[in-house]
Design a protein that fits this description.
Largest sheet: 4 strands, antiparallel
Order of helices and strands: HHHEEHHHHHEHHEHEEHHH
Helix content: 55-70%
Strand content: 5-15%
Strand order of the largest sheet: 4-3-6-5
CATH class of one domain: Alpha Beta
Number of strands: 6
């Protein structure tokens, strides 16, 4: 029921958009009225076509579309009937050349023309070749992260850790030593931590594990906030990178923003632009320059704050580790 209410609210804006297209002579019905199109309702002798419904459905927000076309059909059709009734009444009461209508439609037409212009210019530059070049650049800048499969034995003191390490170096099976001595929850499983990436472990543990090769056991116990660890690396692998199709939408969005920014920069270059204050008075050049310069420190401060975030994230990541409760590093569940 809550989803239906959300969908109802989302549908409220459809009427205005449909009416605007009607005034421009580009109403969905004009597109939908093709040979063989299905009539889904009639209102005072005027048809509503399935093509119109599909166009209106496509304008809904994603959360409404998640309900599915069949589920939303009755509710959306009622809204379309209401729109048709309003359109018929409005057409009788207000002529198309009404001054207020023409004023508002002029502004709407200008926005639509700008939108179509931008879409055409961007689509012309946003070719598949461009996207594939951007994907190659992304792959180079984002190499596949390494993963390590490791076991460990967690102990409370360095003395005990060195004692157990000597047993392992003397030939005792690592998993058996973990089952016998480890104080961590992975002990019963032979200390098996599965595969993990560096960011999933506290730094001293990750540094030691990722410096080792498969089959190696740490030469010395590794100290972390959780205790002393003896580590054995079982395997290493590279995570698979996202494919082109998987990244295509993200690459398109990023490229679209860059192309739009370049277009705007080109428009401004050489253009004669004069701005005024809120009362319409000219802004002295000195004040405008100071205002522009005054914004830069704020940007720099923001950049500095952002530059500090990774450290905070590291702390947050360490605090959010499951081992914080168990006293043992634990990779994300797999």
């Amino acid at each position: 029921m809550a989803k239906l209410k959300m969908a109802f609210i989302a549908l409220a804006g459809i009427g205005l958009m449909a009416g605007a297209y009607a005034w421009l002579g580009n109403q969905p019905a004009a597109v939908a009225q093709t040979e063989g199109d299905v009539v889904i309702a009639t209102v005072n002798g005027e048809n509503i076509y399935r093509g119109e419904f599909e166009d209106a459905y496509a304008q809904l927000p994603p959360q409404a579309q998640q309900m599915g076309m069949e589920a939303i059909f009755p509710l959306l059709l009622e809204r379309m009937v209401d729109e048709k009734l309003i359109g018929i009444a409005a057409g009788k009461a207000i002529p198309a050349d009404d001054p207020e209508v023409e004023k508002q439609m002029a502004g709407l037409r200008e926005r639509i023309v700008m939108q179509v212009y931008f879409e055409r210019e961007i689509n012309a530059k946003l070719t598949d070749e461009v996207l594939r070049q951007r994907y190659d650049q992304w792959k180079e800048a984002n190499p596949a992260p390494s993963e390590v499969h490791a076991r460990h034995i967690l102990l409370e003191t360095e003395e005990k850790a060195k004692e157990v390490l000597a047993e392992v170096q003397g030939g005792k099976e690592f998993a058996a030593a973990a089952q016998e001595h480890s104080t961590g929850p992975s002990g019963p499983n032979g200390g098996d931590l599965g595969f993990f990436t560096p960011d999933q472990m506290v730094k001293p543990f990750a540094d030691a594990a990722f410096a080792m090769e498969p089959g190696q056991v740490s030469a010395e116990p590794v100290k972390t906030d959780f205790g002393w660890h003896i580590i054995k690396v079982e395997d290493r692998r590279e995570q698979a990178q996202s494919g082109f199709e998987e990244m295509k939408d993200q690459l398109s969005q990023e490229a679209t923003q860059e192309i739009a920014a370049e277009m705007m920069a080109g428009f401004r270059e050489g253009a004669e632009i004069e701005t005024f204050d809120i009362d319409g008075n000219p802004i002295p050049a000195e004040e405008e320059a100071l205002a522009t310069e005054g914004e830069q420190p704020a940007a720099e401060e923001a950049s500095e704050v952002e530059g500090e975030q990774p450290a905070a994230e590291d702390v947050s990541a360490a605090e959010s580790e499951q081992p914080a409760e168990s006293g043992e590093e634990q990779p994300a569940q797999q």
